[in-house]
Amino acid sequence: MKKYLKFACIAVIVLLTLCVCGAVLAEGMPTGGMPQMPEMVDNTPKGYIWAAIGVCVAMILPGVGSALGVGMAGRAAAGVAAEDPEKGGQCLVFELLPATQGLYGFVIAMFIAVFSGILSGTVMNLSTELGRSFFYSSLPIGVVGLVSAYFQSRVCCAGIGIVAKQGNGGMGITFAIMVELYAILALIVSILMVVGVPVNA
Amino acid sequence: MIVPMKHISLFALKADERRIMKTLQKNGVIQIERADEADAGSAEIDATEKAAGLFKAASEAELSEKQNTVLRIKAAIGRLNSYMPKAGMLEPAPERGEEELISSVPAALEVCDELDSLQREINSNKAEREKKLAAIKSLSPISAVNIPLESIKPTKTANFTLGTMKAEKLRVLSEAGVMFDAFGTEGKIPVLAAVPKDEPEETTSLLRAAGFTEVPVPSYEGLPADIIEKLNADITAIELENAELSERLAALGEKAADLKMGLDGALIEQGRSEARCGLFATRETFMLTGWVRSDEADKLDKLIEEETKVYCLEMRDPADDEKPPTFCKNKKFFAPFEFITNMYSAPDPRGFDPTVVMTPFYLLFFGLMMGDTGYGLIMSIAAALFIKLKKPEKGAGQVARILFWGGLSTMVFGLLAGTCFGMNWYDIFGESFPFPLLDPMKDQMTAILFYCGLGFGQIIAGMIVSIVLHLKRGDWQTALFDIGSWLMIFAGAAVLLLVKSPVKYAGWALIGIGLVLLVGFGGRAKKGFGRVIGGLGKLYDITGFLSDVLSYSRVFALGLATGAMGSAFNLVAGIARDMLKGIPVVGGVVSFIIAAALLIVLHVFCVAINALGAFIHCARLQFIEYYNRFYTPGGKLFSPFGIDTKYNKVK
Fold first, then answer.
1. Number of helices and strands (H, E) in chain B?
2. Domains, chain A
3. ipTM of the complex
């Protein structure tokens, strides 16, 4: 299990670094305080890069977390169902609980895609500042979604243990849903941030 | 409502025992508690000890026999599962009589016997086949030997050894003067060598040096080639036979109904034997102890009276140190929602059944969390069809009914603050359409405040329920000082916020009284300085209220997520249609079909995952934010001794 968490952490760090480096490079090298020649200044807005990175972060990070989480819980569930197929239904509920983070990420990714104009094609006019705002708004659900899906999945595996031993995992579902609160709060914050970006102002 | 339990002790004649147990099982009115010898009380234990022991041993032996039957039939069903005709998803369980089920056990056991003998034959055939294959493998290196194997016998002066070696090494042997006969000219060939009886070592070492590997002479008669041919023919015959046996085994799958009826019959008998193990017996009588619902006490008396005239039924209320099982009885509309409560924990038998005060809030928040009229419609229709066609019982039936009502609630709240299949109302019906009254996409803060306000309402409701419960118990101090004081503070704050006239001083007054009651009496259990600290500590509860209220912001997120997910899926289907439209000639049809298929699959997934989320998150709000204020968990559900079948419904 540790192996996966480590892998996920490394993936997150590498991805975020790549994103930011890519965006900084694309926006133009920092001038280091040197006055630039007027003809060298690239005045085209670079918001589209940041918005696209935002979409990626919002989808990739919680998606990875949910895939890890559902995968772990799924293996535990299959183990129980192999012994007693009748408990498979309850185990399925546990397996699906960590799947929600990926969906929250999907919702934010779609929000950013719609609001920034990626879908309508107006994204090329998006100013760099607004594009950055979209990127920042993908971070809460991205990071919290990844981490909470992983830890929720561990509670779910324990809950599947309750099902295997006791037959009724109702309490385990309550335990697992406690972890979800933070993904939900992150989703709310992300929604408020995306919706609040003054694109049409 | 929690139905009070009565403790029963029934004494009757052993001769009537089977009939009484049968009636009790059929009616499912009592939960048997294993009678300990100590419970027998004044019964003359010494004299009856032997009889009791015999009865116990006999019933335990019977139970293990019945358990074996159940296991055998279950194993047969498992073995034949893939050959059985598939039952439709929505087919209701067939209804049969108890007698019919029990009388079908022998038939099921016959099927089991047949299955076992078939399986045994198949297995022995398989073993035989393996043996013959191994023989062929051992014969194949010497298949070129053209003398009958039985003719290889020691003579007066020499033994013969059969083996294989490379043809080109034969020269070494002939030069060394070893007598041999080689079969074949090239490659690895079988060689029959003569080893003189008086000096075997010399020859064997010569043979070994030439790379001769000995092959033990198989105990077959005839030429090796003929033997192999015969073995191959045997194997083909065995395979044919096994194929036929497998077909016969598969045909047993047709007897699925017999097996399933037999299993249910065996389960009924097993249940009865299990119950018998909980009895205590003397030489002529038996004693049964357990619990009965107080509203069914008379029914129980009547049931036993129909079976026998010689009995004694004692009933009493549970003693203080006893914990009776919990049974909740609610109106038909509320009954399915007991499932939610039991998911957390069944109520304490002396506590309060919260189902009725929870259901309205459950439906309210479920509807808001799903928040999509179209999805609500699908859920209600699917749940209604499932209930109508499958006629589910117990857990599945309760969940289906919760989803049905939840779907109706979702339809209403989707209109008030949501979407329809992921589409905005004003996109469908134009800007002038009055719904939704509150669009969480446009007024996010209003929506969050509104949902948290509703949550605050539920918390207040929980406090009021708690006050009522405490007053009923006569504990007016807790009701007034610990809960009432907070209500006063909240009421005062509400007055301050809403009213601008001089009446607002009443608000200050209310807050003041509330605070005095809270701080002054909150620590009343302690003395002196501890009392002051305790009272001030109560003020800290405000953080609990705050976090509980904020927890309701999940309603906003989940409601919005449903609509957003739906609209994203609409978008995906739309993009797919636009892309496929470009295909010449068939573009229109193909794009329509693909987009429609995508929409159906994606929306069904969306309904399923969001219904799961709403179901669980809504239950959580009840457990943590609501039950927290008044609920006493820790009961054990009443599980009466009854008929518990798997495949058939008992009439």
1. 22, 13
2. 2-26+45-196 (1.20.120.610)
3. 0.73
